[in-house]
Design a protein that fits this description.
Layout (H helix, E strand, L loop, with lengths): L4 E3 L8 E3 L3 H10 L7 E5 L4 E11 L2 E11 L7 E7 L5 H11 L2 E8 L10 H15 L6 E2 L3 E2 H8 L4 E5 L9 H5 L4 E6 L7 H9 L3 E3 L8 H13 L4
Length: 237
């Protein structure tokens, strides 16, 4: 039987408490139609988790009883910071959702020279990231930043241990760079549907980024963002 997971703002020290997030409580009550006595897992986004039993369901909230405490061990050691150019339509929502599922730590929407859409709904993206973190069993919810210009993205990426700049036609991605020394924080740059501008590629090289490709096939930008994030965290292929 599936045990539903939710992320709420709590330290789980009280033996019995009311779910502080009204949206989560509404989802439990009205969407999932959970019942009194059912078990759920609550996380606080800071790796702390608690297995809880629903003790009361009301119109104003959901009360739970803490059965046991634990720590979430599903997070990767490497922090992946995704700098992805803002995509058309709602494709950036998909990037945030799937990158969260494969372990991204932070997401920066980037305004590049070839970016057509200049804005994103950060509040909505944060909700997408939270729901994806709950669904995938993560103990941490990625941080979704406000949009930044490409020049600003270069500055935010400077503290990373290494930065990968993905561009079609560049040498294939070599994960061996990550094994050369301890890489705790890795930046991943993904361009728009039309790719990066030549001046942006030159700027990446000037800043000692590893310019690489994800193979000979032409991938959609959202696909590239998801695959690149997975390759940084996942096993060598």
């Amino acid at each position: 039987m599936k045990i539903h997971r939710f992320i709420v703002d709590s330290d789980f020290t009280a033996p019995v408490f009311e779910i502080p997030d009204r949206e989560v409580a509404r989802q439990m009550r009205s969407v999932l139609k959970l019942k009194v006595g059912e078990m759920i897992i609550l996380g606080n986004g800071r790796l702390d988790e608690a297995q809880c039993r629903i003790s009361a369901l009301g119109l104003k909230g959901v009360e739970v009883e803490v059965v046991s405490h634990s720590r979430n061990h599903n997070e990767f050691r490497t922090q992946v910071v995704l700098f992805c150019a803002i995509l058309k339509k709602d494709n950036f929502d998909l990037v945030v959702q799937k990158a969260t599922e494969v372990g991204v730590t932070e997401v920066y929407p980037v305004i590049s020279k070839r970016t057509v859409k200049l804005e994103v709904n950060v509040e909505r993206l944060a909700k997408v990231a939270k729901e994806a973190a709950e669904q995938s069993g993560r103990g941490f919810v990625p941080v979704i930043h406000d949009p930044v210009k490409f020049s600003e993205a270069l500055l935010y990426a400077a503290p990373n241990d290494v930065n990968y700049f993905f561009e079609q036609g560049a040498p294939p991605f070599d994960r061996g760079v990550l094994r050369m020394r301890d890489m705790n924080r890795v930046g991943v740059f993904i361009g728009t549907e039309g790719g990066w501008d030549e001046t942006e590629v030159a700027a990446a090289k000037k800043n000692y980024f590893h310019v690489a490709s994800l193979g000979n096939l032409t991938l959609r930008a959202e696909t590239a963002a998801i695959i690149a994030t997975y390759l940084i965290n996942g096993p060598a292929l």
